[in-house]
């Protein structure tokens, strides 16, 4: 069963990338159950599954449930893994997403920038997590009508991801689509 636990969290991430959120959430819950059964309430696998469930809940717009799951994951993280930079970055990123998407983009910006800076200290240039954090940071900036800053952050994400992995890399393409949508929305707002 420990192999199942190790396989479930990556499966959740794959399903999330495929936008199969209901399945991702179901497997995140199963991962939590298996982790509790095998490792108890203090494992890194349990923490990761809780965080991933919170992330997917945010992506489907269930922000209250996402915040509750983030709170559970963060409590476990601070007790068991306080020096874990990846966990700190993940939590900041999700908190920033939740704040931005619930109408508090100025607060969200602080957390998204913090996540980006943390990821920059240990992830390689163009890494998926770093690209995503920049995309979330740009989202919070765009929500505040800070278009130039949002464009700079997205351009950096696109440049790093595409220079390391190529322009066809899926995260580079996602960032490009976000930039195009942001510019289109800005043009539409200016045309009114």
List keywords for this structure.
mainly alpha; 0% strand
Compile the SSE list and pairings.
Blueprint: H1 2-17, H2 21-39, H3 44-59, H4 63-80, H5 85-101, H6 105-122, H7 128-143, H8 147-165, H9 170-191
> Regarding quaternary structure, how should these chains be classified?
single chain
How much strand? under 5%
Structural class: mainly alpha
Supply the number of helical segments: 9
DSSP, total strands: 0
Percent helix range:
over 70%
- Which spans have pLDDT < 50 for at least 5 consecutive residues? none
Task: Provide mean pLDDT, rounded.
Answer: 93
For the sheet with most strands, the description reads:
none
Order of helices and strands: HHHHHHHHH
Instruction: Write down the Rg.
Output: 17 Å
- Give the overall shape: globular
Termini separation comes to 58 Å
Description:
The protein is mainly α and 192 residues long. It contains nine helices and no strands. The chain has helices at residues 2-17, 21-39, 44-59, 63-80, 85-101, 105-122, 128-143, 147-165, 170-191. The longest helix has 22 residues, at 170-191. 42% of the residues are buried. The mean pLDDT is 93.
